[in-house]
Amino acid sequence: MVESSEKIISMPTTSVDTVADNNLNIEYNIEETLEQKIISCVANSSAIFKSQQIDEPELTVEEKKIITSNVLHKSHSQFLSRFGKYLTIDLLEYFTIKNDNYEVIHYVNKLKRYFNSKTRQLDRKNRRYEALKVLVDKGEYFSETSMMKRNPLLYDNLIGRYLTEEQKKARDNLDTTNITFVNLLLESIERDHMKTLKKNQEDEEDDVLEENDSDSDTEDQICMNSKKIDKNISAWGEISNVETSCKAEEKGKELIVPVNNITTNEKNILRQEFVTQMYQNFLDGKDVDFDYSLVDDNEAYDNLDLRDQDEEEKYFDSETPEWIDEPQLTKEQDESEDELDKYMKCLKEQSHTSQHHLRESPT
């Protein structure tokens, strides 16, 4: 009877141990599955795994997996810093399991923001705006000559056609101080490229104008036919709405300012319009030769006062590390976005107002 009693008492202990072991196995399997997904995800991405010489063969996927696995098991924070942007947001769960490392939490929270389309778009927008201000301060990228090379047709329409020969000569004059043959050759190549670009822009503009002319001819024919019909209607005392509409369209056509009949103030207005458009092109990502990845993914351009202050307090000022949920736009971030929009909208409104004054100027 005693032996039987001991057996009965020992059975629950075995059952509890089994449940605990099963839970551990399940947790281990989840981690193992996530780990394999992480390694596979990074190995099949465009990440840089090691520096290679030109004549070295490309790494195989298996070799990339080995490198990825080694970094992952060595340091989670180093892994997230190096490969985090090549993951997906659901794979970040792996790094939140039993992890109270401040640095890892910091990287995970930043990556959650990166993978959120709204906050990422806002970050990109603000970083480009900060980069714009830096480039404007430095002067070279947004100098008149550099902008002319990037958009020669727009420059010629708004500025170049109103310059005197002396002004054009001063603009195109090379600085012969310490000039080398290589610099002279590069300058010649750039000018040839600018001429080709301008020719391509003119061809594209002509194609658009031809399409518009075709549409306009169709509209004119409709107007003429409508007038004929309207004459019959008017005979019965009706008012011609179609004819009035056609006349309004004719009056709405933009007036072109003659080259020899433009004031200094109007030239300045056109110059501002050109600069504003070049700023907007940069912000919109239309500068084809500019590497936007140097800005869009560069935290050095973040406005810490507007974006990071509250988050850093969550990362480091609490007694225990804190995981944050999917980032939401704060009031300050909304205001930051609004300020950028207001700035560019203001520039556009100034330009449109200026153009209106130009069109109304007497010829």
From TrEMBL:
Residue intervals of the CCD97-like C-terminal domain: 126-319
Compositional bias ranges of the Acidic residues kind: 202-219, 312-325
Origin superkingdom: Eukaryota
InterPro entries: CCD97-like_C (IPR040233), Ccdc97-like (IPR018613)
Disordered, as annotated region: 197-219, 312-341
Pfam family name, one: CCD97-like_C
Entry protein name: CCD97-like C-terminal domain-containing protein
Organism of origin: Microctonus hyperodae (Parasitoid wasp)
